[in-house]
Amino acid sequence: MIQVRFWGVRGSIPCPGPQSMKYGGNTACIELRFPEVNRHIIIDAGSGIRELAGHMMAHDLPRGPISTEIYLSHTHWDHIMGFPFFVPAYIPGTKIKVFGPVTYEDDPLEEVVGGQMKYRYFPVNMGELAASIEYKRLREEPN
Known about the structure:
The protein is of the alpha/beta class. It has a single domain, classed as Ribonuclease Z/Hydroxyacylglutathione hydrolase-like (Metallo-beta-lactamase, Chain A, 4-Layer Sandwich), CATH 3.60.15.10. Helices cover 16% and strands 25% of the residues. It contains three helices and six strands, in the order βββαβαβαβ. A six-stranded mixed beta sheet has the order 1-2-3-4-5-6. The radius of gyration is 15 Å and the shape is globular. The N and C termini lie far apart (31 Å). The mean pLDDT is 92.
C-alpha cells in the first residue's frame, strides 16, 4: 500500500490566509510512504516541506534515523524554497538522496539547491548541515 499526502500544491509563492484554507497555501511538496518496505519519497521541496519536516521529526525520528529520497520535478524557486527549512537535514544520522533534472545552465544540482543557502540569503550554509546528502542528476534517455 502507498500513502500519499500533499503538503503543498501552490505555484510561484506561498499564500497563507483565509482564502487558502481549503487547499492550503504552501508550494509544491508531495509525500509518498511505502510502509511495507520502509521507503519514503518526497516530490519537490517547496514551502510545504517545512510542515512535512515537523511531522517527520515527531513521528519518524523517534523510531530511528530518517532516510528519505527527494525528487525535484524542476528547480524553479517554488519547488526548492523549502529545503533550507527541512529540519531532518540538520540532524546527524539522517540520509537524504536528492534526485533532480539537468539544470538550466547545467549547474550541479547541489549548487542549485545549495545556492539559496549562501550566507547572503540564509544564515546556515550547506556545509553546516549534519545529514548525509547525496545528489543524483536525472537525464532523459532517448526511446
